[in-house]
Design brief:
With 384 residues, this protein is of the alpha+beta class. The chain has a domain at 6-197: Ribosomal Protein S5, domain 2. Helix content is 41%, strand content 19%. The protein is built from eleven helices and 13 strands. The chain starts with 5 loop residues before the first helix and ends with a strand.
């Protein structure tokens, strides 16, 4: 059975809703992060992989702004100048505002959106939407933006316009993803290094949906900013928490009176080291070491960043007990999905066992699926 095509569904939705075909379609992937959680906005490395699941935006020229989504089929009439409405269309309104700022927005558009990226599962459905929207709408305006420009527009749409204090990881992998590779992204310097990513990644959804505008992520960012400001009293040249060496971590913790701030700093420093070690392990095809680092990363999210949930903890523990290389919560946290790596001959039995354990504990069956490392944003053909 061929994989579901969001581009074809978005085109069909556009035709059904607006009575004509779109002028352009673009799509972009969600992502899963092997390691490097909450390091991007702290100046550290991240190590994401683009998913085969994608979001597609079909757009056609119009003299106003009308938007429709297969997830919420009521047509939204948007006022680009009005305050945000607290709904999905805000992300595309943010994209339009940022495209206008660089002279790359159309005067208006009809837009249809379809996605196979689960919403609220920690797989970056928002970046898939903003990156694909930036590509489609800039093309509609006759502009071909670079990948870096698309990343900037999508980042500012979510961070500055919608108000979610994300880093740049999600938009970067959604734009720059390449099939068969993971991307080591050093956020402080902007350097990108592709590392071969063989095999299959399994996703086990917790069924606990998170909403980043709910405040937890912004709270953690404020705590990190507060810790950084305090530590700069000791190290004035310190720009990011991720610059703290592991050998300096005890001294940093001694300078912080609040236990919460000590935990946040401990996570960032240790996760920075784990992420670089994970890239080296994958480069050497040492999946067992990569898995060990993933398990340690999850423990840090659970204990130090306090962003996990019971369902994710149970999935990770079950995967480790049943012989997976490793597993960890991926995404900002407070719900979402767990990624799982397992020896190829035993993948399906291990995942089936994890599902059985989850059903026994929580009384419901988690959604599971798998992906290979996939490519980034692209223009899609219009089929007619």
């Amino acid at each position: 059975m061929p994989p579901r095509s969001p581009a074809r569904h978005a085109e069909s939705l556009f035709r059904r809703t607006f009575g004509s075909g779109p002028d352009v379609i673009a799509s972009a992937p969600g992502r899963v992060n092997l390691l490097g959680e909450h390091t991007d906005y702290n100046g550290g490395p991240v190590f994401p992989v683009a998913l085969e699941r994608r979001t597609a935006v079909a757009a056609g020229r119009f003299d106003a702004w009308e938007l429709v989504s297969s997830a919420e089929p009521d047509v939204v009439t948007a006022d680009i100048e009005a305050p945000m409405q607290g709904r999905w269309s805000d992300y595309l309104v943010g994209v339009v505002r940022e495209l206008r700022a660089i002279g790359a927005a159309p005067g208006g558009a009809r837009i249809a959106v379809d996605s196979s990226v689960p919403i609220g599962a920690g797989l970056s459905s928002s970046a898939a939407l903003t990156v694909s929207g930036a590509r489609a709408l800039s093309l509609l305006a006759g502009k071909r933006l670079s990948l870096e420009q698309l990343v900037d527009v999508a980042f500012r749409a979510e961070h500055d316009q919608v108000g979610v204090r994300v880093g740049r990881m999600d938009q970067t992998i959604s734009a720059h993803g390449k099939a068969g590779t993971a991307l080591l992204f050093e956020t402080a310097t902007g350097t990108l290094e592709r590392v071969p990513m063989p095999g299959r990644i399994w996703i086990v959804e917790t069924g606990v949906s998170h909403k980043l505008t709910g405040g937890e992520l912004n709270d953690r960012r404020r705590e990190c900013d507060q810790a950084l400001a305090l530590l700069q009293g000791r190290w004035p040249s310190l720009r990011f928490l991720a610059e703290i060496l592991p050998s300096d971590l005890p001294a940093a913790e001694d300078l912080l009176a609040e236990d919460a701030l000590r935990r946040r700093v401990r996570h960032v420093v240790t996760e920075t080291a784990r992420t670089r070690a994970a890239a080296a392990a994958l480069e050497g095809r040492d999946l067992a070491e990569l898995g060990r680092l993933m398990l340690a990363g999850h423990r840090s999210l659970q204990v130090d960043y306090q962003s996990s949930v019971a369902e994710a903890d149970a999935i990770v523990a079950s995967a480790a007990a049943r012989g997976a290389y490793g597993a960890r919560l991926s995404g900002a946290g407070w719900g979402g999905a767990v990624l799982l790596l397992a020896p190829e001959p035993h993948e399906r039995p291990i995942v089936a066992g994890v599902v059985d354990d989850f059903v026994e504990r929580f009384g419901r069956r988690p959604v599971t699926w798998s992906t290979h490392a996939a490519g980034g944003v692209r223009r899609e053909p219009i089929r007619g």
